[in-house]
Amino acid sequence: MNELLKRVLFAVPAAVFFIAVMWYKSWAFNILIISIGLFTQFEIVKLLKKAGSQTNIIFPYLIGLWVMLYPYLPFAFEIGLTLFLIFSVIQTFYSNQEKFSHLANTFFAGIYAPLGLLCLMLIRSLGTNEQGFALALTLVLMIWGGDVFAYFGGKQFGKHKLAPSISPNKTVEGFLFGFGGCAAGLAISIYALPFQSPISLINGFPLIILIGIFGPVGDLLESRVKRKAGEKDSSNLLPGHGGFFDRFDALITASCAMYIYLSFALEMGYVSL
Questions:
Q1: For 90-119, what is each residue's pLDDT tens digit?
Q2: 7, 57, 103, 146: which sits with the fewest CB atoms below 10 Å from its CB?
Q3: Domain for residue 273, yes or no?
Q4: What pLDDT score does 138 carry?
Q5: If you write DSSP's letter for every residue of 2-45 in order, what string do you get?
Q6: 146 domain residue, yes or no
Q7: Beta-bridge partner residues of 56
Q8: In this predicted structure, what is the pLDDT of residue 100?
Q9: Which residues, other chains included, contact 71 with Cβ-Cβ below 8 Å and sequence gap of 6+?
Q10: 46 within domain boundaries
Q11: Do residues 214 and 257 touch, judged by C-beta distance below 8 A?
C-alpha cells in the first residue's frame, strides 16, 4: 500500500468522525480536543527530550490541562497561581543549574498546544450550536484546504525554497497556493452548509490571510522542533500521518489567529451572532 493511499484511508474516516463529534455542542467535543492536546504534549515533550531540551515530567500536562479547562474551572486563576508557585519552588530548590532550561521548556510544552486547542474550543462555543459549528468547521476546512493546495502547488510549481534550513521541501509557490486552498475551504464552509454561516466571503477575507500565514507558521515551528530532535515525525500513532503534533501543528497557531480576529470582529459588529 503506497503512502498516499494509506494517508487517505485513515484521513477520510478520521475527518468524518472529527466533524461528527464537532457538530454537537457538548463536552464530547471538548473531551476529544483535550485528549488530542495531551497526546500532542506527550509528543512535544518527547521531541524536546531528544533535542536535548528536557522538561519537567509532570508539569507540562498539569499546565496544559489548566489551560484547556480554564473557562470551565471554578477558581481557575487561583488554581493557575497555585501551579505556578509549586513549580517555582520545585524549579528553585530541586533543579541544578544545568537543568535551569527546564523552566522555559516546561512552559513551552505546557502552553503551546493547549492554548491553540483552547482557542478551537472557544470558537466552537460561540453563538448557537449551528453558528459555533460553522465557525469551527470554517477553521478546519481552511486549514485542510491550505494544506492540500500548498502540497500540490508546491509539487507542481515549487522552485523557490520557503525556509530551507527548517523544512527543505516547502516552497514559496506552495505557500502562495495555500491561500487559494484557504479561500476554497472558506467557500465550502459557507455554501455547503444547510444553514447560514456567520462568516461570509467579505468578513471571511481576513481569515484567508491570517490562516494562510499562521497555518504554515505552526507547521514550520513543528518542523524546527523535529529537525532539532532528528525526527521525521512526532510519533507513529496515526497511520500514514505520523503523530498528533504532525496533524494539528497548523491548527494550533491558526486557531489562535482566528479567535483573535473573531473577538475583534464581534466587538466591532463586523461579524454578528
A1: 877 765 655 667 788 899 999 999 999 999
A2: 57
A3: no
A4: 96
A5: -HHHHHHHHHHHHHHHHHHHHHS-SHHHHHHHHHHHHHHHHHHH
A6: yes
A7: none
A8: 61
A9: 118, 121, 122, 125
A10: yes
A11: yes
Q: What local confidence, expressed as pLDDT, does residue 4 receive? A: 61
What cell numbers appear for 11 in the block? 484521513
C-alpha cell at 170: 516547502
Domain boundaries, position 212: 3-267
Alpha carbon of 210 to those of 21, 205, 237, 254, 258: distances in Å? Answer: 26, 9, 29, 7, 7
pLDDT tens digits for range 52-65:
888 888 999 999 99
Give the global pTM.
0.92
Q: Is 87 domain-assigned? A: yes
Low-confidence ranges of the chain (pLDDT < 70): 1-6, 94-100, 240
Closest among 195, 203, 221, 191 to 258, alpha carbons compared? 203
Specify the pLDDT at position 46. Answer: 94
Residue recorded with cell 494509506: 6
How far apart CA 218 and CA 249 sit, in angstroms, is 5
- For residues 194 and 157, is the Cβ–Cβ distance under 8 A? no
